[in-house]
Amino acid sequence: MVTTQVMDLVNKGTMLPLMEEFYTIQGEGYHKGTAAYFIRVGGCDVGCHWCDVKESWDAEIHPPTAIESIIDNASSYSDTIVVTGGEPLTWDMGPLTSGLKTKNLQIHIETSGAYPLTGVWDWICLSPKKNKLPVPEIYDSANELKIIVYNKHDLVFAEEQAAKVGKDCILYLQPEWSVREKMVPIIVDYVMQNPQWKVSLQTHKYLNIP
Question: Which stretch is the leader sequence (predicted)?
């Protein structure tokens, strides 16, 4: 059972509900193919029905972990760190990113943007979800917009979201894995007609790596 004292530290961001951490190859978006250390933080209330890490949703089942331990582990593997979830911005990311920066690491985040942006980031991948839209101020900070395409209407949603990001934000359409065979031809055709978009694939799944 997590004590009130520990929860206070979690709420301050000096401990985080850590689901898993692992060294692998970034499989998606702009940095695909790059070796990176992933920090997956538990806790998410966005609730995408097709989410492939639903076990990350309940923060209470993931042990509160001191960020000093997370930082030490990350810095021993790679100079590129990806913080993901769950929804990492559920928690204050300031202490974690400050500690990672003392190690001169490049820090990326993958977020739905459903909560205010905290922390200092070298790369922000914004992946909005219809269930809980991003807070307005995060759009201008996004380096990369990644829309998961489950059906054709998601292309309409993609354009609505693209209209809100900065002009230098890179736009990606990524098929949801379970419907990829159906959606890839639709996405390819759409990108050919709308070349401001790029195709993103979950290449790590094709490579059979985490």
Answer: none
* Over residues 79-107, mean pLDDT: 97
pLDDT digit string, tens, across residues 119-167: 999 999 999 999 999 999 999 999 999 999 999 999 999 999 999 999 9
Overall average pLDDT of the 106-124 stretch: 98
Binding site membership: which residues?
A: 25-27, 40, 44, 48, 50-52, 84, 86, 127-129, 210
Q: How many CA atoms lie within 13 A of 186 on its CB side?
A: 18
Which residues carry a binding-site annotation for S-adenosyl-L-methionine?
A: 50-52, 86, 127-129
CATH number where 16 lies: 3.20.20.70
| CB 130, CB 50: distance < 8 Å | no
Range of the domain at 120: 4-206
What total number of domains does the chain contain? Answer: 1
